[in-house]
Amino acid sequence: MESEAVRRRIVEYLRGAGEASVYQVAKALGISYGAAQWHLYVLERVGVVVSVARGRRRVVMLRDSFDAYLHGLKMADFFKELWGFLRSRGVSTDSAFLEVVRMLEGEGREVADAFVSIAKFLYSQRREGRGASSL
Fold it and tell me: Please, which pLDDT band fits residue 132 given cuts at 50, 70 and 90?
């Protein structure tokens, strides 16, 4: 089978699987472990896939996948993106929390629910004497 065809099949497989080990790719495509390893190496060099550690093994995933996004996301970048999202909707540092939650419900219930869940967690930490400085 032609190399480009194998690599296309790997990409299609990863779109469905999300992530996989070299062994899983080889088995799914019916190719040798060495061939799978080589094609994944090529795909990683050209920026199509990314390899990450999962315990003692490594898995590959498409670079544009959500998992790859999460693995590369730094907390400072997350908060910067979140604050940019909120500011674009008129939120300021003086905005009341519940007003923001109500506004976010229009964006999608899960976003508003996530904010409330975080607030509940922080409140419980405060009540237990484990404020933000000790988290």
Answer: low
Distance, in Å, from the CA atom of 29 to the CA atom of 113, rounded to the nearest integer, reads 41
**Residue 49 to residue 22: CA distance in whole angstroms:** 12
DSSP codes joined into one string, 67-125:
HHHHHH--HHHHHHHHHHHHHTTT--TTS-HHHHHHHHHTT-HHHHHHHHHHHHHHHHH
Interval 13-37: pLDDT, tens: 999 998 899 999 999 999 999 999 9
Residue 39 burial class via C-beta count within 10 angstroms: exposed 0-12, middle 13-18, buried 19 and up: buried
